[in-house]
Design brief:
about 65% helix; 26 helices; mainly alpha; about 500 residues
Length: about 500
């Protein structure tokens, strides 16, 4: 399974800690004025308390913390309170300093995006638990803790933390998008949509509208928000381009699906005026289908997925791998970049040791949950001749739980193991069965992949079928599987 194997990619909301979302500009309110003081009575009380109490640190922290929770980033008094906290940083904890810096957005750096290290996650959980003893109603802290538990694969604890966060702040954009992405991770799209649809803000916030429509479309669930979304897109003079980017991309994807490629291209051009990385990746994924040119030289921050796709498309597999590894660090609870990175390393670069190491380092908690992660692991082990390890993992797969394409893939992997055990006839039969199954499923790409690996094993034992190799190369070129084409056959 490679980097282009999305059946139908959608702009599903990303999920990262609040500090990263703040830096990427995905939590700031849109330009529509909101009177937060009237909407949240307790917030107004905390602002007054800060002004009356001779500007004490305790009132400043309470005020700024609440401003973060309600998403009010346009309050001059909150800015002054944050600056007051920072002026007294020697008297307060590092957590309080971080809170103030988050509000005024001083910490603008993405160099620490590698969040998948287990120790890093555990340390952050300890830190957040200590903070919650002081501020137990801080929904952002609860959502951040849910994130770190998800990275560690502790889904039940992640779910519990997010339940608390979304009940404390049921209308907060960051909380709602984070919750939606968690529930997709937990294979519960109905729950993701429940919270998005329950919030009145979804009708007025293009970020939430995009999330609701994309998730509905991805799981074939009807949505009533498409007309509202299209109305929003007529308000380009009233809202910043960044706030509308995902929504433009989402509607463009719907138009492309219905065959309206010219409409889709026009919508994507608007989406790419000031996009986030998710929108850029969507546009690049859609580009060959609708004839769209995507200029990656002026891309969004953290466009690791788009970079990986670009380098892969031009056959620069070394840079494709490095970008995809950055992508999996950026979204460490997502299995797709792990699958893609291990594929590029194993299939494109023939570096099976690195493929195994990638899965161990970044996808270890996916091995028992995602068939393709485990399959790529078994494939690399078998390709290195580590047959006993490969067979042990193979035996742990519950075949009855697999989809048809997964069962066919498993046949091919079993075929590889038989070849490496010198059981040639059994291996050949398994590969041929896999190829036949892929043909029945009308899956041309995997048909060619299975044929390629059958040819590889035949060549390894001295049976070099030149005609078969030429046929595979032609099919691979037609399907964009350039990694299977011998370099001598590729015109520079």
């Amino acid at each position: 399974m490679n980097i282009n194997d999305y059946e139908a990619r959608q702009i599903i909301p990303r999920w990262y800690p609040f500090e990263m979302a703040l830096y990427l500009g995905e939590v700031l309110p849109n330009s529509k004025p909101v009177n937060y003081r009237n909407k949240f009575t307790s917030y107004l009380e905390k602002e007054i308390d800060w002004m009356r109490n001779i500007k004490t640190l305790s009132s400043a922290l309470d005020f700024v913390g609440t401003a973060l929770v309600v998403n009010d980033f346009n309050n001059d008094n909150a800015v002054k309170a944050s600056e007051f906290i920072l002026d007294n940083e020697k008297k307060i904890s590092s957590l309080a300093i971080q809170l103030a810096k988050r509000y005024v957005n001083e910490e603008k750096k993405i160099s620490n995006f590698s969040l998948s290290d287990d120790n890093n996650c555990r340390n952050n959980i300890v830190r957040i638990k200590a903070a919650l003893k002081m501020y137990p109603y801080n929904s952002i802290a609860w959502a951040d803790m849910a994130y770190y538990y998800a990275v560690l694969g502790q889904n039940a604890k992640s779910d519990k933390c997010m339940f608390i966060a979304v009940n404390y702040s049921p209308d907060n954009r960051y909380i709602l998008r984070s919750a939606a992405r968690l529930y997709l991770h937990l294979h519960d799209p109905e729950k993701a949509l429940y919270y998005l649809r329950k919030s009145e803000n979804t009708r007025y916030d293009p970020w939430l509208l995009s999330s609701e429509i994309s998730i509905s479309e991805a799981f074939d669930i009807k949505t009533k928000n498409i007309k509202t979304a299209k109305y929003f897109l007529t308000k380009v003079d009233d809202l910043p381009s960044k706030d509308l980017a995902e929504l433009f991309g989402t509607i463009a994807t719907l138009e492309a699906k219905s065959g309206a490629n010219n409409k889709a291209k026009k919508l994507f051009k608007n989406a790419l005026i000031d996009p986030n990385e998710n929108t850029v990746a969507q546009a690049f994924w859609m580009s060959p289908q609708i004839g769209l040119h995507v200029d990656l030289s002026n891309k969004a921050e953290a466009s690791f997925e788009a970079d990986g796709r670009y380098y892969f498309s031009i056959g620069n597999y070394k840079d494709a791998l490095e970008s995809t590894i950055k992508w999996l660090k950026f979204q460490p609870f997502c299995s797709h970049p792990v699958i893609s990175a291990s594929y590029i390393s194993g299939v494109c670069l023939n570096d099976y040791n690195r493929s195994i190491q990638i899965i161990k380092d970044y996808g270890n908690h996916f091995i028992e949950k995602d068939f393709f992660v485990k399959n790529n692991y078994i494939f690399s082990l078998a390709s290195l001749g580590r047959i006993s390890e490969a067979e042990k993992l193979l035996d742990s797969i519950n075949i009855g739980s697999l989809q048809n394409n997964e069962k066919a893939t498993l046949l091919a992997t079993e075929g590889l193991i038989k070849y490496r055990k010198n059981l040639i006839d059994e291996g050949r039969k398994l590969y041929e069965d896999a190829i036949e199954n892929f043909k029945i499923l009308k899956d041309e790409k995997r048909t060619v992949l299975a044929s390629y690996f059958l040819s590889r094993e035949e060549k390894r034992i001295g049976n070099d079928n030149i005609l078969l190799s030429e046929k595979i190369s032609k099919s691979a070129k037609r399907l964009g599987l350039n990694e299977l084409i011998p370099k001598s056959n590729i015109k520079e």
